[in-house]
UniProtKB/TrEMBL annotation, chain A:
One of its GO terms (biological process) is transmembrane transport. Pfam families: BPD_transp_1 (PF00528). GO terms for cellular component: plasma membrane. Its main location: membrane. CDD domains: TM_PBP2. It comes from Agromyces kandeliae. Residues 100-292 form the ABC transmembrane type-1 domain. Belongs to the binding-protein-dependent transport system permease family. It is a multi-pass membrane protein. The chain crosses the membrane at residues 36-59, 105-126, 133-157, 169-191, 212-237, 271-292. This is ABC transporter permease subunit. Keywords: Cell membrane, Membrane, Transmembrane, Transmembrane helix, Transport. It is found in: Cell membrane. The lineage of its organism: Bacteria, Bacillati, Actinomycetota, Actinomycetes, Micrococcales. The keyword Cell membrane applies.
UniProtKB/TrEMBL annotation, chain B:
It comes from Agromyces kandeliae. Keywords: Cell membrane, Membrane, Transmembrane, Transmembrane helix, Transport. GO terms for biological process: transmembrane transport. Belongs to the binding-protein-dependent transport system permease family. It comes from the Bacteria. It is a multi-pass membrane protein. This is ABC transporter permease subunit. InterPro entries: ABC_transporter_permease (IPR051393), MetI-like (IPR000515), MetI-like_sf (IPR035906).
Length: 307, 331
């Protein structure tokens, strides 16, 4: 048998037959090296394909508008940073920084709200014994699977009756009410893994639930809170449907809706500006991702968060 | 492990009370002081839960019930809802070809896109699992699209990539396949959207990879001793050991795929074109509800979606007995 190493579920195309017949041991090592090289080349090629759209976007921001549709190559013939200058002026009389400020404000408020409400709810589900906890927990899990489109129409009507359309309330208020069940669940799982001895010691020392929550549990669930915070920030930053429904005045637009403005007005003429804004809008998230990738990817791996 | 969520969902589904009470188990009021403490525990519990309860009742359960009512009415936001019985549903399935087309393309998108996406995720996860060193970089690179894939920026990029004389068109022309742009092409715009979904294979891949790392190596060694080839090893070891993770990914990805909105909306400039080929269910729902202000009709559409998703989830849960194995389960 030639496959005596313990690689797992090796795809068939990695099976390479060698012509020479060296000693079995040497042959195995040589095979392993060749397999590793092939493995690396295949993955590197795949990475290049997967990341190509982002590379294309970055390079395209340096193309003058006239080159779009003329120069099919990746590299611009006359690289320029004019797109960025043009874009800074903004659109529809609103400067670009304003859209960034709006997006940042909404995302930061969403993070605060989600952390506050999700941590409280998670503690109740994980540590407090009260009537009805089972059915409520089942309801919370149920909302994970519910297509949210079934609530957007009544919610819109409600916020309209409350005169909150064209304010940020409909975007921020739900976050303070733990509507994103994923984070409640994530923190519940985290709290369940904390040994109960800690709270019991606190209980014996006379601490109530609030004291236990603030002094013992909160410091221990920091990793879960960080993961929730990063995901909330990114999802809110990317959210398009929410602001599309609720924010009507251009000066209040967060980036995704503002981007649509560029996309609509400049679909033929000023493509360079559209591309530059698209890239700038992604930049904070990409930086976030590069800095926090371990938190994000491990958070997904352990809890099964959606993308 | 992500199986914890699957299990939680399964438990909730079977309406079994999840084990929340830890080692102590449910309190039995034997001592007189305990009853008072129980009542206080309940009060404290609901205080902690207050924000979530308000959100659940006011933003989820209440709206769900209200939209169920609206589904049987005609409502345009300005006059009172008028009860019309089943008219919305009848109209949907008999008099609205746009709706039927929207259902068709959404089903194609979900039922073709999701298996391809999961197959890609599993394939790449197995490839990454082949070696430990160096795979962290690849893992992160493959995950990045999942994080940004639903954003407006990516939709704009995607449209540019697949437009006439864009990078994809040029590459294919180079290989002699001169099919032009995909964006305006009735036959190619849906495959393009599916490719955008497949591009985001990173999130399920990361979950698969975590599952693969937990498969004991001895199982593969035992299979090899028995003379199993790669295909047999996949069928008899990898797939059963990973089935709970596959189940979880399948459930979540199917449900998510039904809800694709921003990318289709941006790519078609809100029109759902060309020829309605990007008029996905949620895009059409948005147009009916918020552009035409037919809120009753849109609510009826939303409820059909909920029922379809519930049926798919029920089928998955029903069939899981025959192919999903949980650790410590001797089926």
């Amino acid at each position: 048998m030639t496959t005596s190493t313990s690689e797992i579920a090796r795809p068939e195309f990695l099976e390479i037959e060698l012509d020479q017949q060296p000693a079995p041991e040497r042959r195995r090592i040589k095979r392993k090296t060749i397999n590793t090289i092939i493995w690396f080349v295949v993955l590197a090629a795949l990475t290049a394909i997967v990341l190509y759209p982002l590379i294309w976007l970055f390079v395209a921001t340096f193309k003058p508008s006239s080159e779009f549709g003329q120069n099919p190559g990746l590299i611009p013939d006359n690289p320029t940073i004019d797109n960025y200058f043009k874009v800074l002026e903004g659109i529809a009389g609103v400067p670009l920084w304003r859209f960034f400020a709006n997006s940042t404000f909404i995302a930061v408020m969403a993070v605060i709200g989600t952390l506050f409400s999700s941590a409280l709810a998670a503690y109740a589900f994980a540590r407090v014994q009260f009537k009805g906890v089972g059915i409520l927990f089942a309801a919370m899990i149920g909302t994970l699977l519910l297509p949210f489109h079934v609530v957007i129409i009544p919610q819109y009507i409600m916020f309209q009756k409350l005169d909150m359309v064209d304010t940020y309330w409909p975007l921020i208020l739900p976050k303070f009410l733990a509507t994103e069940a994923f984070f409640v669940f994530l923190i519940v799982q985290f709290i369940r893994n904390i040994p109960r001895d800690m709270d019991e010691a606190a209980r014996i020392d006379g601490a109530g639930h609030w004291r236990t929550f603030f002094s013992i549990i909160l410091p221990l669930i920091k990793p879960a809170l960080i993961t929730s915070a990063i995901f909330t920030f990114i999802w809110t930053w990317n959210d398009f449907l929410g602001p599309l429904l609720y924010v009507n005045s251009p000066e209040q637009y967060p980036l995704p809706v503002a981007l649509r403005l560029y996309n609509d007005q400049t679909s033929t003429s000023d493509y360079g500006a559209t591309v530059a804004v698209s890239f700038l809008a992604l930049l904070p998230i990409l930086i976030f991702f590069i800095v926090f990738q371990r938190f994000l990817v491990d958070g997904v791996a352990t809890q099964g968060l959606k993308g | 492990m992500s199986t914890t969520l699957t299990k939680a969902i399964v438990t909730a589904d079977q309406e079994k009370r999840p084990r929340l009470l830890g080692r102590r188990g449910p309190d039995t009021p034997t001592r007189p002081g305990l009853r008072v403490r129980n009542r206080r525990e309940t009060a404290t519990g609901y205080t902690f839960l207050l924000p979530w309860m308000i959100g659940f009742l006011g933003l989820t359960l209440g709206p769900m019930i209200y939209s169920l009512y609206l589904a049987f009415t005609r409502y345009n936001l300005f006059t009172e809802p008028r009860w019309i019985g089943l008219d919305n549903f009848v109209r949907m399935f008999t008099e609205d070809p746009q709706y039927i087309q929207s259902v068709q393309i959404t089903l194609v998108y979900v039922l073709v896109g999701t298996p391809i996406k999961l197959a890609a995720a599993l394939g790449v996860a197995m490839l990454l699992n082949y070696r430990d060193r160096g795979s962290t970089f690849f893992r992160s690179s493959f995950y990045a699209p999942s994080l940004i894939g639903a954003s407006v920026s990516v939709a704009i990029v995607w449209r540019a990539m697949f437009s006439t004389d864009g990078p994809v068109d040029n590459t294919l022309s180079f290989f002699g396949l001169d099919i032009g742009g995909w964006v305006g092409n009735v036959a190619l715009v849906l495959p393009m959207m599916i490719l955008l979904a497949v591009w985001q294979f990173g999130a399920p891949m990361v979950i698969f990879l975590a599952g693969l790392k937990q498969v004991p190596r001895e199982l593969y060694e035992a299979a090899e001793v028995d003379g199993a080839g790669p295909i047999r090893k996949f069928r008899s070891v990898t797939f059963p050991m990973l089935s709970s993770v596959i189940f979880f990914n399948l459930l979540l990805e199917l449900i998510n795929a039904f809800q694709v909105f921003a990318s289709a909306y941006i790519i078609s400039n809100g029109s759902g074109g060309p020829a309605g080929m990007t008029n996905f269910y949620t895009v059409y729902l948005y147009k009916r509800g918020f552009a035409d202000l037919q809120m009753g009709y849109a609510a009826a559409m939303a409820w059909v979606l909920v029922i379809v998703v519930a049926i798919i989830a029920a089928i998955l849960f029903k069939t899981q007995k025959s192919w999903v194995h949980y650790a410590g389960d001797n089926r």
